[in-house]
Amino acid sequence: MRSHPILDQLGELGVRLGLDRIKAFLQVLGEPQFACPVVHVAGTNGKGSVSAYVTEALVAAGYRVGTTVSPHLEAINERVMINGLPVDDPTLTEAIEAIDRARWDWARSFGMESAPLTYFEFITCVAFHVFATQQVDVAVVEVGLGGRLDATNVVRPVVTAITQIGLDHTEVLGDTYEAIAVEKAGILKAGVPLILGTMPGEARAAIERRATAMGCPTWYPGRHLLREQRKEGWILTTPEGRLEQVTLAMPGAHQGSNALVALGVLHALRRQGFHLSDDAIRAGLSRARMPGRVEVLREGLIADGSHNLDGTRALAAWLATRPRPGRRILLWGMGEGRDAAEIIAPLLPLVDEVVTTRCRHPKARDPMELAHALQELDIVLAAGDAIETTLPEVFVEADETVVAGSLFVAGAARAIYYSGGLDGLEPGSVVPEEDG
């Protein structure tokens, strides 16, 4: 399902952080967020991958798992999954319409002329409704923005995880690692185990202060969580034990860190009575995938949703491990309100040219304006058009095309590829004419 009129209307309201609205509404729904145990995952980057690893391992162990992540790349269904697969259109439509009826009844009971829920609050309620009606054994819930005031922070988790802290959404969360860490630490609950990923020292210190005050047992890299990469696979260690020969389907050294956080979550669940054998965990970690995360769609085409500095650093580190295939072009599109030159910088030594583009998202930047923001950089630069036209043009000129800058741009590239938009085309098959 690409869109729904109810969600389209709610999307116009924008983001409004806070828990009062969703808490009051969930009471009307019978508090479906408490229907099963929850793993709550926050972090600037990596939370989607960690959620995928945890989900697949639980499924491999025989559990029925609900997962909610954001944003979606192509279809709304990606936000509400059962056993790692997006729910079907009829299930999602029924849930959307049920939540919509309930919110209007709720609003009218108070004499309100509008039903005050944001898009994210609404879809979060849809996910909880689906999980309750589908009777999942456990839910993996990814934070949308921040943590403390995020709509998902109405759950009572049995384990929490904070994957990584970076300087993103600074206009909302604060402009220092410590300030952002404090916001994300808002998901901690008294006595609930916490698993941390690699992050700046001041961020970890801020989170640990909160964890100590709330009595949350905490595992973090270097002391409790250890990883080592060998030819036969990763070796991952937590206080619960050691897991060897772990292979990951998602590429990039950063995925070793994400898998280690996921193992910490799974081992914390095992300590609470979940039946999670090493074989099930290994199988789950090996098959977990996240669309649009360093994804090789076909020879000569890579899509990655990196949209902040830590994301492009991770993508650059992975590209640096690959042989340069020839002419590599970065097709770059991103949303408004971000420092394009700073975010793109790690990728520039690894590409021969940058072509700007845009997807259909209403907040996507105009390719010409984006090229203007990058014009001082030492790189061959061209302003493209909509990705539907620009991707095929770039693909036949480049030996390798890397699409990045936004999850929505990565999603658009996937949609073009899977709909046959590049059928019959080969990378590097057209040699561009020399100027002059």
Can you walk me through this structure?
This protein is α/β, with parallel strands linked by helices. It folds into two domains: 5-287, UDP-N-acetylmuramoyl-L-alanine:D-glutamate ligase, CATH 3.40.1190.10; 295-418, Protein-Tyrosine Phosphatase, Chain A (Alpha-Beta Complex). Helix content is 38%, strand content 17%. The chain has helices at 5-11, 20-28, 47-60, 89-109, 119-133, 170-173, 177-184, 201-214, 254-271, 278-287, 309-319, 340-344, 367-373, 387-397, 407-418, and strands at residues 38-42, 65-68, 81-82, 85-86, 138-142, 159-162, 194-196, 218-219, 226-230, 233-238, 241-246, 295-298, 301-303, 328-332, 353-358, 380-386, 400-404. A hairpin with a 2-residue loop joins β12 and β13. The protein starts with a helix and ends in an 18-residue tail after the last helix.
Number of helical regions: 15
- The CATH class name of the largest domain reads Alpha Beta
Number of domains: 2
Question: Which percent band covers the strand fraction?
Answer: 15-25%
CATH architecture of the largest domain: 3-Layer(aba) Sandwich
**Major sheet characteristics:** 8 strands, mixed
**Helical residues, percent:** 25-40%
As laid out across the biggest beta sheet, the strand order is 4-3-2-5-1-6-7-8
Which outline best applies?
globular
Report a brief summary of the structure.
With 436 residues, this protein is α/β, with parallel strands linked by helices. The protein is built from 15 helices and 17 strands. It is 38% helix and 17% strand.
What is the strand and helix layout of this fold?
Elements: H1 5-11, H2 20-28, E1 38-42, H3 47-60, E2 65-68, E3 81-82, E4 85-86, H4 89-109, H5 119-133, E5 138-142, E6 159-162, H6 170-173, H7 177-184, E7 194-196, H8 201-214, E8 218-219, E9 226-230, E10 233-238, E11 241-246, H9 254-271, H10 278-287, E12 295-298, E13 301-303, H11 309-319, E14 328-332, H12 340-344, E15 353-358, H13 367-373, E16 380-386, H14 387-397, E17 400-404, H15 407-418
Helix pairs in contact: 1-5, 3-9, 3-10, 4-5, 7-8
